[in-house]
C-alpha cells in the first residue's frame, strides 16, 4: 500500500464538529484544501461523474455541506482568499473557466 503524501490536522475546536475524512478513493473525485491566515480550514470535493461540487469548513461547522455551483458556494459568504481558492479548485476539477 502506498503511503499518504498529505496529512492535515484539524485546527478547529471540538464544537466545530468532526472534520471530513478525505481520501482519493473512489477515483474520479477532485479534492482541494485551503487554510487561511487565521488557520480556518476548508475542503472542496468535486465528483466528476455526478458533476457535483461540495464545500466543508470548520468555521461553518464541519458537518455542514455547501453545494458549489460554477465555483461559488451556495448559502455561504466567503472571504476573498477563500473565493479565489474555490474558483481555482473549480477550474482544476471541471476545466471550466468563468
What would you call the shape? Answer: globular
Number of β-strand runs: 5
What's the helix count? 1
Q: Estimate the helix proportion, in percent.
A: 10-25%
**How would you classify the helix and strand content by structural class?**
alpha+beta
Write the layout of secondary structure elements.
Elements (H helix, E strand, L loop, with lengths): L28 E7 L5 E7 L4 E6 L8 E4 L2 E2 L6 H15 L4
Antiparallel strand pairs: 1-2, 2-3, 3-4, 4-5
How does this structure look, described?
With 98 residues, the chain is α+β, with helices and mostly antiparallel strands. It has a domain of 68 residues. Helix content is 15%, strand content 27%. It contains 1 helix and 5 strands, in the order E-E-E-E-E-H. It has a 5-stranded antiparallel β-sheet with strand order 1-2-3-4-5, with helices on one face. The radius of gyration is 13 Å and the shape is globular. The N and C termini lie far apart (39 Å). The mean pLDDT is 88.
Task: Spell out the key features of this protein.
98 residues; alpha+beta; 1 helix
Quick gist of this model?
The protein has 98 residues and is α+β, with helices and mostly antiparallel strands.
